[in-house]
Amino acid sequence: MDGAQRRRLAETALCVVAVVIVCLSLSTWQPFRLAEARVFDFLATLSPPSMQDMADGNGGIVVVAIDEPSFAEIGLQWPWPRNLHAELIAALRKAGVKAVGLDLVFAEPSSPVADQALAAALGPDVVLAADESLIETPHMSQLIRTEPLPEFVAAGARVGLASVSLDADNVLRRMPAAPDTFAAELLKAAGETEAGDRTGAAAGGRLIAPMGPARTYPTISYYQALDPEAFLPPGILNGKIAVVGRSLQMAIPAETGGADSFATAFTASTGMLVPGVEVQATIADNLRHGLFSAWAGLPSLGLAVAAAALLAGATALRPAGLWTLLAGLGLVALVLVVSAASFFVLRVFLPPIAPSLAVAFVLAPLAARDITEERAMRREVTRAFGHYLAPALVERLARDPSALKLGGERRELTILFSDIRNFTTLAESMKDEPERLTHLINRLLTPLSQAVLDRGGTIDKFIGDCIMAFWNAPLDDADHAVHAVEAGLAMLAAVEILNDELRAELGEAAPKLTVGVGINTGTCVVGNMGSATRFDYSVLGDAVNYASRLESASKECRVPLLLGAATAEKIEGRLAPLLVARISVKGRSGVSPVYTVVSSEPLQPATRERFDAAVEGLLHGAEPVTASFEEPALGQLYATIAAREAHKHPSPNRGTAEARAEIG
Q1: Distance between CA 612 and CA 22 in Å, rounded?
Q2: DSSP 420-471
Q3: Confidence (pLDDT) at 655
Q4: How many helices, marked H, and strands, marked E, lie in the chain?
Q5: Contact at 8 Å (CB) between 358 and 19?
Q6: Which of 51, 128, 268, 603 is deepest in the core (most CB within 10 A)?
Q7: What is the residue extent of each domain of the chain?
Q8: Residue 5: its H or E element
Q9: What parts of the chain have a pLDDT lower than 70?
Q10: What pLDDT shows up at residue 663?
């Protein structure tokens, strides 16, 4: 593992630890807990318990509703006389109910006759409601418990605390914590002592499994329960547990509120409150069937958060990309699946928000780090290659760095060498003015470099007064040979322009600058060359050496631009390569033809063939042709080649012909 990998691992580990601490701290913050509770509401409403399963054969709970039809049929104002409740208890017993729960608090005496009638009807199968209220003042907090009248308790009735605790958002989600809750006492009254004893206090604070919105439970009106034989099907109440309380048929909107009505998990979707009598029935069924869930403790949540953060950290060990986003979404989906499985299978609510945030909090900063580093790398690529590549190519590399293959690859390139002629003499003449020499060289190298960049070339290096460039790397260039030759012609033109400027500035004392250009095409290795700590993007291969030899040979051949045979073959049809000489190069066996180009304009094939044939004659010792070439550039080039060959192979008969050729 190298230093960069160790640094990346250390940063990831530090991020994971910090995220775990932050997420666990958030999970203790009340607004965050309320957000998690909303997730519980959603899960709890996805698959509520079936009322058929809750019926448990002939058992189950039925709600006796003090509702609008009952007020209409009975015709009395609330509160109704207690002897009426006594009649209800008697009628329900006769109908076969196992227990009756009156979700009504009889704390104050009414008429003696009515109270005596109710007391006579009470027994151990009847549960009366008690209530607790917390009175808080600036100086004290007082818990007040309101109990039924003593004579009702003395008559054998059970008493259960009907109060419930709401979460901070006023939603009922938790089982009451008292040992003598109304629901637990109701189960005892029904003979289900095991359920009541085992779960009454132990279930305190657990999460209620809601049965559904208002009126989910089987409900009959109070007036119907007073005379079941007249209003209800036979046996409908047999073996049931009856819970009596106010339950209006017109559900109460959550925003208006109402007495003894509560927001539950279903309120968010329905917007309606659930009557307290149905809440008591729900709590009783949660006790009977063990439906309630536990909220995962801090150790379990911490384990989930740590696991999510570690998985995200493992994902972030690789450089960020689109796959990182997909992996992050996959991890969040996994967290949701685990949370749902824990809730529905284990009855443990493992909030998914903190683990999901752990995934996001780990991936986001690490991905931001990678994006920042990538942008920095792109800026570095842009800065580095901006000295060597055309701006358009640099922009392409910055958008798609994959186009730049580092480390070396084989590919066909066209290589160009350009060197200033007689630079040693020029430097000697300016030995006392190094600043002037530097300025002059920069003035020359600037347009020569621009000629390369304008045609998509890559400047490999500056070697004193020499420029080395190549085409077809790092980006593909199908016409690399043509572009290289065009760059060579542009270099020659740029030198002439600079000479004109110098003459205009310095007069006859201005130095006359000339350059030689050698171009060759061949297969090379291109990539990062150098040591492990310092390297350059460069090329190696025999084709490079040959291009350098061509640049040197251009002086001997008396042409400023010299092309290898491979380059000449590549530009056929686009430019007009003309035969110049056949040369032998150090390190190579035999001789090779070399070519030049005098213009970017194509020539007629017949003209080129005639010129090459004439040059072949010169190379084989023939006398110069007397026929002139219509193109002045061809005539001048032919005269130059003829003069060169005459100098190499003197002949008494060549002087006149040479003169004629120069004139032609």
Answers
A1: 82
A2: ETTHHHHHHHTTT-HHHHHHHHHHHHHHHHHHHHHTT-EEEEEETTEEEEEE
A3: 44
A4: 25, 19
A5: yes
A6: 128
A7: 3-26+297-382, 61-233+243-287, 419-602
A8: helix 3-26
A9: 1, 56-58, 193-201, 250-259, 381, 384-407, 531-535, 587, 626-628, 651-664
A10: 28
- Which tokens sit at 251? 């559900």
Tokens matching residue 411: 């590919």
Q: Which of 355, 570, 378, 408 has the alpha carbon at shortest distance from 482?
A: 570
Q: Which CATH architecture has domain 419-602?
A: 2-Layer Sandwich (3.30)
Question: Which phi-psi region, left, alpha or beta, contains residue 562 (left: φ > 0; alpha: ψ -120 to 50)?
Answer: beta
What contacts 305, CB < 8 A, 6 or more positions away? 19, 20, 23, 24, 27, 354, 355, 358
The answer to whether the CB of 484 falls within 8 A of the CB of 451 is no
As a residue count, the chain comes to 664
pTM over 0.85: no
Q: For 473-494, give the DSSP string.
A: SSS--TTHHHHHHHHHHHHHHH
pLDDT tens digit sequence for 242-272: 999 998 876 566 555 556 899 999 999 998 9
What is the token pair recorded at 657?
């012909």
For 110, the 3-state DSSP assignment is: coil
pLDDT computed for residue 509 by the predictor: 81
Signed CA dihedral, 373, 375, 379, 382: sign only: positive
CA distance linking residue 547 with residue 543, whole number of Å: 6
> Distance (Å, rounded) from C-alpha 163 to C-alpha 148?
14
Burial call 610-630: b when 16+ CB within 10 Å, e when fewer: ebbebbeebbeeebbbeeebe
For residue 484, give both structure tokens: 């290289």
Tracing tokens 């007249």 back to the chain, one arrives at 230
* Contact (Cβ atoms closer than 8 angstroms) between residue 498 and residue 447: yes
Phi first, then psi, for residue 549 (nearest 5°) are -65, -35
Relative to beta strand 141-146, strand 126-136 is antiparallel
Q: Is the peptide bond before 79 cis (omega within 30 degrees of 0)?
A: yes
For 442-480, give one letter per residue: b (16+ CB within 10 A) or e: eebbebbbebbbbbbbbbbeeeebbbbbbbbbbbebebb
CB–CB of 597/485 below 8 Å?
A: yes
Q: Do residues 519 and 562 make contact, with C-beta atoms less than 8 angstroms apart?
A: yes
3-state class (DSSP) for residue 204: coil
Q: How far apart are CA 163 and CA 142, in angstroms?
A: 15
**Chain centroid to CA 402:** 20
Q: How far is CA 265 from CA 41, 166, 271, 276, 400, in A?
A: 4, 12, 10, 14, 52
Written as six digits, the tokens of 427 are 């430097």
